[in-house]
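Dear support,

I submitted the protein below through the web form. The confirmation email said the job was done, but the results page showed an empty box. After a refresh the structure appeared. I'm attaching both so you can tell me whether what I see now is the final result or a partial one.
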Amino acid sequence: MQEILVFPRSFLNDKGEFIQQDEAKQLIESLSAAVDWMPREEAESSEAWVQPIPCAIFRDASGKYCVFRQIRQRRKDLSQRLSLVVGGHVDRCAESSLLPEVLSETVKREVWEEVGIVLDHTPSLVGMVVDASSLMASRHVGFIYQVDVNTDVKSLSSEEFSIRSEYNGRFLNMADHTKFRLKEGRLAFGSLQFDPWSSIIYAQYLDGGFGQSALPLFDVE
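What the results page shows now:
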């Protein structure tokens, strides 16, 4: 039975949206003595525990960020959406007992499994993202690490992303406001919407920074 890392929901203290780097690091330190392991099926239905999901976002030398297109899935807000993040659960087999290392080693593993890139360094934690729009959405909390690359990035995982999509590993200039808009309350590029985490990351980290959301500048459809 697969066991994954969890921590008490109470540690979020009604936090929502993007949590910047310093506060995210402090939260990781405070979580170190409170994390536990739980069967994944049990965690997915828990109201008391949430699941940390270490994720990578990829930036090239020109400052563009890489996007992928998710496959069709049950959650409407994730199905076939564009995504900036690649990541996954922390499995019980994690080698280190130190939480910062557990999270960073997991994101390095996910980068290798998802896009075939071996990271010989620890990526930079840039913050956390919490989608508090529903109980289901808030069961997963993203720990976001930025990975600077000088090569093409393509998803190898057909279980997560559409590997034949034109958006598989496409780098976009996230500062180009003319190419982005709101569609049904979410960030969109052309006719495709981004998933909730990516919308939050764009609005509160990639563009303008913490609390200065760019989304109201776009035309609402």
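Response: this is the final, complete result; the empty box was a page-load delay. The longest helix spans residues 99-115.
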